[in-house]
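Predict fold of Phospho-sugar mutase; 615 aa.
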Amino acid sequence: MTDRTTGYRDAADAADDPAFDPGTDRSAFLERVAAWIDDDVDADDQDELRRLLDLADSSDPRQHDVRASALAELQDRFSGPLEFGTAGLRGRMAAGPHRMNRAVVIRAAAGLGTFLLDTLGPAGAGGASRPRVVVGFDARHRSRTFAVDSAAVLTAAGVEVLVLPSALPTPVLAFAVRRLGADAGVMVTASHNPPADNGYKVYLGGRVVTDSGQGAQIVPPYDARIAAAIAAVGPARAVPRAGSGWTVLGHDVVDAYVRSVLALSDGAPRRLKVVTTALHGVGGETVAHVLRDAGFTTVVPVEEQLDPNPDFPSVAFPNPEEPGAMDLALAVAQDAGADVVLANDPDADRCAVAVFDPRVGTYQGAETARSNGWRMLHGDEVGALLGDDVARRVAASGGQGVLACSVVSSRLLGKIAAAHGLGFATTLTGFKWISRVDGLVFGYEEALGYCVDPAHVRDKDGISAALLVAQLANRLKAEGRTLVDALDDLARQHGLHVSDQLSARFTDLDRIGETMTHLRAAPPRTLAGAGVSDVADLSAGLDGLPPTDGVRILTADGTRVIVRPSGTEPKVKCYLEVVLPVAPDASHDDLTAARAAARARLDRVKADMQRALGL
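Predicted 3D structure, encoded as tokens:
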């Protein structure tokens, strides 16, 4: 006979269940699930959890495997709250405290409201006005709902709330925070994550952050203070929500953003043919508007990926960096005879660039755009091109400023800054750090993020970056040259810097920590035949940077590898860079040979790191 308290017939039955933890009071756990269901605010989420609870508590002996699976799923969903940190919230959409859902978002909004009121004081105290928050959202499933819930909670708490008029790119929200003098911004998006995910980014500005980080994403200690306020919030059902009282902004805020981007236009005659793709995200309309008004009349969008679609039907993974994500755009570019491809990720804060490069054409096997020579530029290549372009303009105007990139990005940007007499800064990974650099005029990270207009957007912006790439390619075409030729020029000036990435995705999150521990205990002694000259643990801090989880490896020939866990995905990432000297008068053939040699060395480094990490 089955015990209804435990759900098992006997101890042997319980021991056979892989989801059963003998150290857990199963009855108390199921009561906790039931309590969450009662306190949830969404009927569909309640029903979802009830179905799992009924399966987990089944007394039917024929349902042993189903019961075990349901219990394991519940244990995962209730393994703890979805952690709020410098990336805000991000996770799979489903019911339960360890998922993205209305209950979790409502409690997050309540915590943010408490933080703002504690920081700024209630309206009217000492003449203070209400805290102001701008809320934006993308076109993912439930994004609009999460945005409305946030507006309702913050309004009820006494906060002035301004909501963007429709699903829009993240850079528009970052722009609005600064333009409207908001004390905080909330963007509901999971950026380039899979379709099942959603997220909650928080920006601070106005009277809360008044230094160079005004309008940027949160960093410590703000994240911990907001997280503590969220933890103190009671059940979602008890959180007050207003039925109205917030303001839905007009389209003028989008127009103002577009005008700020168009102020970067060089006004040159346009000869470029561009292919664009929004990857089913929210950037398509805004990018088209910017390029059209900047004079680019020959723009071919990938029609299948132009309109927002939260299911991302034409890509396995909606991230331009992922294999296959750009194949459709490259095929369109080849058929259209385009000069360049500009791709945004789903929330349009990143920009991928692809070009025709005869060096990489193989003409072997099935004919594709890639086999013919179309390739994506690495984020470090685009960062170098944009950094040099911005630095030239700043130096030509007699201005000053700082170029900045993350610690895992190429060392080339520092050489470019020095060549133009500008400052340079290295930061921790993430634009929450890059955008805070004093005097910033350009910042980037190798993961396709570029900040070309920090005066207006203190974050990566794939739309303004797309305009500047198009302009640079347009000027080069007028000279009979390409972006690849410009990269060769940088190699002649500063040496050939070639970078790549090795990453491993884990389903068992414990393996991420185990992998990092293994590397620290047994780092490689050689990479691609060169002796390792230095191994630095970034968790102890390095070169003035705050501590972070990572390891830097340098070799005698100048190769650099940095290994770190991803901050937004269940991955361990290795960032690889080799540097080869190049003569100032090196020919095209010399550069071709040098690139092939660098690629071969990178491949050897990658193989050595796979072995070192036990992948």
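The longest helix spans residues 588-613.
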